[in-house]
């Protein structure tokens, strides 16, 4: 989820004027709205939300296996679907906030939904009637959950996904909207990420440890308290917030282009002159559409009855401006590169869920008195990404510019991410081969699990490598979309980043399901399977996707940027 938050933050496009605070003369109880005082409440709310969401999401696979007797691969599938949903709901929340309710209302309603979901999770962990009976004889006999138990569980997870999706995206944008100067927004984003990272690490280690070693009910109670704290802090700051009024969603104008072009399908675009195209009130008179995707150009052609005598549009869904037309074309041009990121994220989603299953079947004792929770293993890519981002910003990027005379381009960053991510899958395959070799010679029963006498530390290289890859390709993606999208659709660039991660998680579920159907590599007991073959398949897919990426990037042309930024390729 750290990627979604980065996308939300970097994708903001606030108006930049004034003295560094939000451009509103309104006051509340004699206090000026916006500025740092308001963001303190937003950051406190973010801390509570991040503690709560990381607390239940990081350990979800383990909870499903141990408390609901769900088979390991099925639990990984459910976790991927939930992760994908938390990436799609932010897009819906952004549309609702922009078009109808505004950020403040979306955040508090989403937080309340999260609280409701956590209450159900606490009840599920506390009440025996809401969970199946424990397994007998070392998981050989495991009662399946009833329909009612499944209904309560899935209702809780759905509420938590909606709540998580509706808060972090809008918190990033709402916090940035409290300022008008770029330097203040940049400082806010730094604190946003510091707060998010620290809260997530604490939750993925401390709260997960409570869930594993004390009880699930206590762990979920801590999540609930953190969520309530975040909601309370957010509401307490309401008198200080500057709020933008909803101005409508950019998706509406894009849809209008498609509908208008279909309604004028019989119109020819070859015989029309400059004055035949509609530029709108704020458009540049005489502007004509580009020659690419000419089939859409008819959407901006003025026909009888489209424009009223006063210059206003009579039928909004029958004509659009040339600028709106070009905005849609811009998105179409970026889709091929965007699709390569979907296939880049799919192996990451598969690796994340399978690594937790590997950790469950490995020796997690770091000392005689401390055992690493399986869910906490995913802190490794989180930390490696944060470290690599710092190293890249301070050393790699300046060194590259000194040697090459120009900055590393977004396309080059993404390309490096492709290579490192594929290397991570290869490392995962080699580590799994080692784990299987040890498993074949020394299996140690430990409680209800079969644990391989191989330290969980062996998983660190593969997870650290994928984290390094994310430090390259994800900021590159955000920068590329933000740079290439037109000004009117800057916020949509972050939505594109969220959508590709969501699709990647759903696609990872489909890939695992396909491999389960056609191969014996993914049984419930992974010691009897061939996870190493799964990883090698991901390596092959990564190489193919990288070739596809190189093809797309070769034909992609950057928009005009500042001379000191970088050249193409």
Please supply descriptive tags for the structure shown above:
single chain; mainly alpha; Growth Hormone, Chain: A; 3 domains; two-stranded antiparallel sheet; 5 strands
Any overview of this molecule?
The protein is an all-alpha fold. Helix content is 64%, strand content 3%. The radius of gyration is 25 Å and the shape is globular.
Q: Roughly what percent helix?
A: 55-70%
In the residues, how many domains can be counted? Answer: 3
CATH superfamily of the largest domain: MFS general substrate transporter like domains
Q: How many strands?
A: 5
Total number of helices:
15
Q: Report strand order across the widest sheet.
A: 3-5-4
How far is the first residue's CA from the last residue's CA?
Answer: 30 Å
Describe the global form. globular
Major sheet: 3 strands, mixed
Compute the CA-based radius of gyration: 25 Å
β-sheet strand percentage? under 5%
Ranges where pLDDT stays below 50 over 5 or more residues in a row are 1-31, 444-449, 561-569
**Helices and strands, in N-to-C order?**
HEEHHHHHHHHHEHHEEHHH
Please outline the helices and strands.
Layout: H1 2-10, E1 27-28, E2 31-32, H2 36-57, H3 60-68, H4 72-101, H5 103-126, H6 147-176, H7 182-213, H8 216-236, H9 250-263, H10 322-360, E3 362-363, H11 379-404, H12 410-441, E4 443-446, E5 449-455, H13 460-484, H14 490-518, H15 531-555
Parallel strand pairs: 3-5
Antiparallel strand pairs: 1-2, 4-5
Helix pairs in contact: 1-6, 1-7, 1-13, 1-14, 2-6, 2-7, 2-8, 3-4, 4-5, 4-6, 4-10, 4-14, 5-6, 5-8, 7-8, 7-11, 10-12, 10-13, 10-14, 10-15, 11-13, 12-13, 12-15, 13-14
